[in-house]
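G., the chain you wanted modeled:
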Amino acid sequence: MEIPAWIETQVQKLNSKTQGYTEKEKSKAGYSYLKNALYLVPEKIADETTLQEFKAKSEHLIDTLPIKQDGGKLEYGSYPSALSSYKNEIKKEYNMVSKGTYLNQGALGMPVGFILGLLFGSIIFGMLIGLTAGMAMGSALENKAKKENRLL
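Predicted structure as C-alpha cells:
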C-alpha cells in the first residue's frame, strides 16, 4: 500500500474511533499527536523494514483506542501506557517531539532561579529570572523543532 493511501486509511480509522470523544478525551488519547505522527514520521524513514514497523505500531495503537459507548465513560485501560511508549520511541528513533515539550522543560528554570535568588538575597526575583530564562530557551527550542519539521 502506498504511503498516502495508508495515511488516509489510518486517519479515517482514528477519526472513526474518536468520533464521540470530547476535546479533553481526544487530548488524553493523543489524537493530535497520533494524527501528526502519521503524516510526519514516514517522511523521516529511509528503509522499508523500519517503515513497516512504524506502520504496524501505529495501526496497533489506533486499534487499541478505547471506543466510547453512548454517553458512557471512556475506559482507557492500558492505552495510556501504550501511547507513552509510542511517543518515547518516536522521540528516540526520529528525534520528533510533541508540542509543549520544551516549554514544559523551560519551567525547570525556576529551581535554578531559586538557587540564584538565595545567593543574591532575593528568592522571588531569582525565581522570576530563572522562569523567564527557562521559558525563553524552551520557546526557542520549540521554534527550532518546528522549523526542522520535528514538532508533532
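Helices lie at 3-17, 23-28, 31-44, 48-63, 79-94, 101-106, 109-120, 123-147.

Shout if anything looks off.
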